[in-house]
Model the fold of this input.
Amino acid sequence: MEYQGHTLDDFQVRAVQAIDRGESVLVSAPTGAGKTLIAEYALEKCLNEGKRVIYTAPIKALSNQKYRDFTGTYGERIGLVTGDVVINQHAQVLIMTTEILRNTIFDDPERLSDVAFVIFDEIHFMDDRERGTVWEESIIFAPEHIQIIGLSATVANLTAFAAWIRKTRKAKLEVIIEMNRPVPLKHLLVLNGHGIGNLKDLKRLDDEAATPVGGRPPGWHRATEPEHPTRDSARWGPHTWRRLLMDNIQHENRLPVIWFIFNRRECEERANDMAHRELLNLSEKEIITRLFDEWAAKYGVQADKAVAEMRKLVTRGIAYHHAGLLPTLKDIVERIFTAGLIKLIFTTETFALGINMPARTVVFDALTKFDGIRRGPLMAREYMQMAGRAGRRGMDEVGFVYSNVEWPFARFNAVNRTIDGEIEPIHSQFNLSYATLLNLWQQIGKNIFKACDNSFANFGAPEPAAPPPQSIRSSRRKRRGGRGGPHAPPPIPAGGSYRGMVEQVRRRLALLERMGYTKDRELTPKGIFAKQIYGYEIQVAEFIEAGILSRLNEDQLNVLFNAIVFEARKGDWFRPLAKELMRPWKFKALDLVEKTRNLEREFGITTQTKEMDYRMASCTWAWSRGCPFADLEAHTSLSDGDMVRYMRLGVQLQRQTVRALTDYPHFANDPYLAEKLKSAAARVSRDVVDAEKQLRQG
Done:
């Protein structure tokens, strides 16, 4: 079967046949195997038949890329809705983040009445600890007439996952599993002081605890140590292996290279360490310089210091990429890499997530990373997704993957689990937020516990994991019983345990009643308002009820909303904002949030409302009052990307609040608040912070 000039693989043919039958499809295939072509077939089919389709992506960068790709082919029939950007929101094809889909399902399900398919790109993201619940909620609560196309990396329990979707959605679902890569991978290890080998060589080192007697086995290259003592070898250091590995890669003609380093600062440092290399010929150098300058001028960032530093590297065919970069600079790097002109890029793992950026070679600087809590080995699924960027279909016969192993600290068993171990299964992360609970309580009342029964956590449970649900009032009476008065029940994990999940729902519902969001099994005006805000619904509702927002000017509102969303990284410094600019409303807001957190502790709720963080206040205040972006470095050491990200998050929350106030203006008792919030958001959403402007310019 031919499509878009390609002869489809067998698994792709099976998928499009199921789509032609109007059935749901779940496709699991390695990175680079061609899953996206299946989504494009469904999209084109719906366009031709006059049906609507929604394409969801886990990150905004991927949503933006798909929007550009599809508008280039289908023009104004494509729309985009993310937290930052709304373009052509009534289009036949809507590209959006999964959070926007979930919110639409609850807020305005009628908008989905004519949607035939929802495409979930990277559906295995349901396993994500922080955001995975959004995928699960979308699958459970999307209108039943919608068919699902799920594109997944390889996972261990795909059959069970598919069976759960069939049961939950009462729909036919074709499961397609493809294990073969179009371009095979060769996995190599850079062994500390012992050259380049493979898993067998690492096992031999473990067994003998020394270099094998009689020299190295065939195929063992001396790329990471000097073959003969030289003056240069006297300068041997902890980073020498990178230089020698790069020498080997260049010698073997294995460019371009994606080099994964799970640390932003090190990405930049390692790129600069390689700045002496000249990886481009004169023609390539001329083209890449022209393209970089054109894009920098288009975005108006030529004078930015970080852009100038990147330009020096890019003109040698080298770059770095991570979430701390200015979004416009990240976009420039991605576009030039896609053009095949960047030969070596140092990047964090976000470069592997869905964005179509293949190379001939992938390097792992380490097979461990910090997950926010502790440093541990990469999961096999993470490794395969990133390693899958090696090998360009139609260009390479094999893709090369090098992994640095710090032997003897890293041993065979741990490395083998990551590189050649069983791929991890998807787990339920179902954890209903306050806003979701309020929406469900309004729609289905006590049947909310049946919604918990539909979760993947409960699927296949051998017996009921929780007693029949009691009413909120009886739960509250039981909690208040005894002479000791209110007390905190023992905490129960929210994820992974069905019993724990149901108990957490019960406790959150009881808390919502205590705080005045529900009464007599109905939503109160505060509950009706809060259900329209996702993520920070408690903070915003409490602040409005207390009259805090009405007393603030636009700049103060921007500082407050930034403090709601901001979370500082360890090691960053911040200039404090003058106390008189924030007193007394800062402390009133802090007190309201702390009271909420105390109640959550009393009720035994495991995931608590985020604390206020005012450390970005001076930076936000200065930007709101017109400060040039380049001058913000006097207010904080935050990276450009982090500053833009948190400013955009604050604006996103303000816009949600405006929409909620527009739909339900009586809650605020302030007819001017919505307009004041709009004006405040406009003061922040300018220049490099304006995401929609960036997308339209690109």
